[in-house]
Specification:
heterodimer, A: about 350 residues, D-Maltodextrin-Binding Protein, domain 2, 11-stranded mixed sheet, B: MetI-like fold, MetI-like fold, two-stranded antiparallel ribbon, 24 helices, about 70% helix
């Protein structure tokens, strides 16, 4: 797959870290429980800017709060670009209000470009393959973009088998997608078709079926359940098992999909640096990753399996190196679908 | 907090006399609340970020805001949205007002309170309810009409400009209704009577006398509806943005909430919107003041006559009940129904079997909901209290003290009415994010924002009551040796109480449902209910959102119940 071999950035050493921030002086070498004691001295709250959906957050965050009594997570949830915009705004006023950022890697990079993030080298990250960590981030989980459909609106015999099915005109006016999911184009160009032309041609044919766009993947899932469209082209696989359990008329396709990285990072000048470090280390640890998995996410830790069936059989991984090409594919994606 | 930045008045020794000190403090507070943020906004609109946190002064923000490829479409959308909504809510409001005030339509009196009910439905919920009803694919009305008439395509699409106009208009009808009721009430009926005497029938009289008499008022009502639509952000956020129909308020919002945030362009757009709104309000006040000049102030107590609609009165009744059922009741019902569903589904036997109290059970243990509820309640009561205390002082100075320059206070207290909510939010971010006192991100910024925005409402309530108090009562207190403060506390304040209570409740309601300022300022711990609704709706938890909506409406209804109990009438304070 080539995924785990990509990123070969050299993580800065602990001395560099000490020199630049003079922060959690002992934090990295300590166990989580010692760090917990330091964290409690900071007031016992964590400002957590994360896109973690409410349905996942309410299963994951209380486990942390129970494991480390006295610490309350203040989860600020919004779409990823809003969260980064908010952090940038706060930085403009010379303030850092947030401790931890947990959003798609693309948005973590944006925050880094603005000079907002701390270089970290978490001991827990050692167990991760090179492609799942960087100088200032560690992957928290992976998300799989898959196709999902409303079972009332898609007959059993017309259920899609692969993404190739969606060029068929029978899907005209029946498709929805997220306007910002250029990852689909990028991954298809680089890993599915291994050709920009073929990928562009594919998505143009899909575009001819009049795709309707809605922002936010959770909302897309809910629209699909409500019957706004027959098929969602760029939905997250982890949104579906819980809905199907509730009896929602939906199903999803795991034959192929695109995977992208969600990452955790710590803000420079975080108001609660030890608490931030405690959370970042916990969520990267095998223990934290198991909780992520039980909370319905796809763990990034190589030794932890997802609880639900959410990994695709054939997966096109978006790597950290691919991020550089986002602007190029973003432009093409918007042109294909006439998005602003 | 607010009092922290009162400007030093120079020689304090000169006047420890409160009657002189208080106007200065009052002006200081008003300048701080209303003028300082606008100044920051103005400065910010000329700044551009060349590297992270490095700014230069430039005009290019205005170029980006008003000469981009989207300038024209945004302008056109805003114009269509605002004039369409102003027109539609005016027509509906006038119909309701005329039928209930001036005709013999059966049961008209029960429709008066019903027409005002939507006033308590927060704009965010109004939009959500109509999405449930008119969404092209799953909207109940569409699904129902399609199956009823065997239609191939949905008859309505809420995600369109007409959809936005409809949703915003129905939320604004109560305002148009109240303004038009006031107009109909103050109309001299003798002119209509003369027309009838001269042989004109009901329709001719209505068309040629009543309508023409209404023209000047109608103009100013349309203008205020236009401005209020231009400033609104609920419908543009919930329907406009998903439909990719952008107006000024959504452009400002997106400038702040998309990466990279562009304060310069947002600021330039906000300055433009502020100017538009200020011009609108100025024209409105001018028009209403001119109108008074031509009023025939006679001593005779007249009672507007009622038109006999004959058989048509049943058509009037049909219109009123249809309006009530479809426009007032249906949105409530659809929210109520959806709040019991596990996920959004059309009414069916299958769906009925899925109904449960799960969403409410979920909310009972859902911390963000209780935090937001607490914030909303604290904020709305505090805002109402602070605003009423402040404005009763200011109103007293303006109307009673006869101090030179007190008109400045009156003017300053009026300034916030021209500031659109989203512009206020943006200005306060620019001001407080770099403020030495760390209140950014807390509910105190929201308190400052709400108090500032609702000062004009408070002024309206307070000045109305203060003008009614004859100064001889205060003079008597002074003659009996009471100090200024004692006289204010023991004479003026008790007399003001009923008027202030009405103002207090009204500000409480508008603060509780406030959205367009909060959307930029509320974050994490300072999140209020309307913002929680918005985020959760964006996240797709639509049925939980419906349950929150039901609880929110219940809270507002209890506030209104208190209001009725205290004042026994519905008033107009816009």
């Amino acid at each position: 797959m080539g995924f785990f071999a990509k990123n070969n950035r050299v993580a800065p050493g602990i001395f560099a870290l000490l020199a630049t921030v003079g922060l959690p002086a002992l934090g990295l070498a300590q166990g989580l429980d010692e760090l917990h004691k330091l964290a409690l001295k900071e007031g016992g709250t964590l400002a957590f800017y994360a896109t973690l959906a409410q349905v996942n957050a309410e299963k994951i965050l209380p486990v942390f709060e129970k494991r480390f009594p006295g610490i309350k997570i203040n989860h600020v949830d919004a779409t990823s670009d809003k969260l980064v915009a908010r952090a940038v705004t706060e930085a403009r006023g010379g303030k850092t209000l947030a401790d931890v950022l947990q959003v798609p890697l693309e948005n973590v990079t944006q925050a880094h470009d603005q000079g907002l993030l701390l270089d970290t080298n978490l001991p827990e990250a050692a167990e991760y393959p090179a492609g799942l960590k960087g100088a200032y981030w560690t992957s928290s989980d992976l998300q799989y973009f898959v196709a999902a459909w409303n079972t009332n609106l898609v007959k059993k015999e017309e259920e899609p088998k692969t993404f190739d099915d969606f060029v068929h005109p029978r899907w005209k006016g029946r498709l929805i997608a997220e306007p910002r999911d250029l990852e689909m184009l990028l991954a298809f160009a680089k890993y599915k078709f291994k050709s920009d032309e073929k990928a562009i041609d594919y998505w143009k044919k899909v575009a001819a079926n009049n795709v309707e766009f809605h922002k936010g993947h959770s909302q897309l899932a809910e629209l699909l359940v409500a019957g706004q469209a027959a098929v969602c082209l760029t939905c997250y696989s982890h949104h579906y098992p819980s809905r199907i359990k509730k009896g929602a008329p939906v199903n999803y396709m795991l034959s192929e999909g695109v995977a992208s990285i969600n990452a955790t990072a710590i803000f420079k000048g975080a108001p609660h640096p030890n608490t931030a470090l405690l959370f970042a280390r916990w969520v990267a640890s095998q223990e934290g990753q198991k909780v992520m998995s039980q909370g319905g996410r796809n763990p990034a830790h190589p030794k932890v399996e997802p609880t639900e069936k959410t990994r695709t059989d054939k997966t096109y991984f978006i790597t950290a190196a691919d991020l550089k090409e986002f602007p190029k594919y973003d432009k093409i994606w918007k042109e294909i679908f006439k998005l602003r | 907090m607010a009092t922290a930045a009162i400007p030093r008045t120079g020689k304090m020794t000169m006047s420890l006399e409160p009657a002189l000190l208080i106007p200065v403090i009052g002006a200081g507070i008003l300048v701080y609340l209303a003028v300082l943020p606008l100044l920051m906004l103005f400065v910010g609109s000329f700044q551009a970020e060349v590297a992270p946190r490095e700014f230069v002064y430039t005009l290019k923000n205005y170029h980006a805001a008003y000469a981009s490829e989207y300038t024209y479409s945004t302008f056109l959308n805003s114009l269509i949205f605002a004039s369409g909504s102003a027109g539609l809510s005016f027509i509906l409001g006038t119909m309701l007002a005329w039928l209930t005030e001036r005709t013999n339509t059966p049961l008209r009196s029960i429709f008066v309170p019903l027409a005002v009910v939507p006033l308590i439905l927060p704009g965010v919920l109004e939009s959500i309810a109509w999405i449930f009803l008119l969404s092209p694919k799953f909207g109940y009305l569409n699904v129902w009409l399609m199956s009823l008439f065997g239609l191939q395509s949905p008859p309505f699409n809420v995600f369109s400009l007409p959809g936005m106009i409809w949703v915003h208009s129905v939320g604004q009808v109560p305002l148009a209704f109240l303004l038009m009721v006031a107009a109909f009430k103050s109309m001299d009926p003798s002119l209509e009577e003369s027309a009838m005497m001269s042989g004109a029938n009901t329709w001719q009289t209505f068309r040629r006398v009543t309508l023409r008499l209404l023209m000047p008022t109608a103009g100013s009502v349309l203008l205020i509806l236009f401005v209020r639509t231009l400033e609104s952000f609920e419908t543009p956020a919930l329907i406009g943005i998903p439909a990719r129909i952008y107006v000024y308020t959504s452009e400002i919002y997106l400038a702040f909430n998309e990466y990279p945030p562009d304060y310069g362009r947002g600021g330039a757009l906000a300055v433009g919107l502020l100017l538009l709104s200020a011009v609108g309000v100025w024209l409105y006040t001018r028009a209403t003041k001119e109108g008074k000049k031509f009023q025939t102030v006679t001593g005779k107590a007249f009672r507007p006559r009622q038109f006999d609609l004959g058989g048509w009165r049943w058509a009037g009744f049909g219109f009123l009940s249809g309006y009530f059922l479809f426009v007032v009741l249906l949105p409530f019902l659809v929210l109520f129904w959806a709040s019991f569903l596990p996920f959004f589904a059309a009414p069916s036997w299958d769906a009925v079997s899925k109904l449960s109290l799960d969403n409410y059970r979920y909310l009972s243990g859902f911390r963000p909901f209780w935090d937001a509820m607490q914030n909303s309640i604290i904020l709305s009561t505090l805002t109402a209290t602070v605003a009423m205390v402040l404005t009763s002082l200011v109103a007293w100075i303006v109307y009673k003290s006869r101090l030179p320059g007190s008109w400045i206070l009156d003017f300053l207290a009026f300034v916030p009415i021209t500031i659109p909510g989203i512009v206020m939010g943006m200005a306060l971010i620019l001001l407080y994010v770099a403020f030495p006192i760390p209140i950014y991100g807390t509910i105190w910024v929201l308190l400052i924002a709400y108090v500032t925005r609702f000062i004009p409402y408070g002024m309206r309530a307070a000045s109305g009551s203060i003008l009614q108090i004859h100064s001889e009562l205060e003079e008597a207190a002074a003659a009996s040796g009471a100090s200024w403060w004692e006289s204010f506390k023991r004479v003026t304040l008790p007399l003001l109480r009923p008027g202030l209570a009405a103002g207090w409740i009204y500000i409480c309601i508008v603060s509780f449902r406030e959205f367009s300022t909060s959307v930029l300022l509320a974050t994490g711990e300072s999140r209020v209910l309307s913002i929680l609704l918005f985020t959760m709706f964006e996240q797709g938890q639509v049925t939980v959102v419906a349950a929150i909506g039901v609880l929110m409406i219940a809270t507002l209804l209890s506030i209104v119940a208190v209001f009725y109990k205290l004042t026994g009438k519905i008033g107009i304070q816009t």
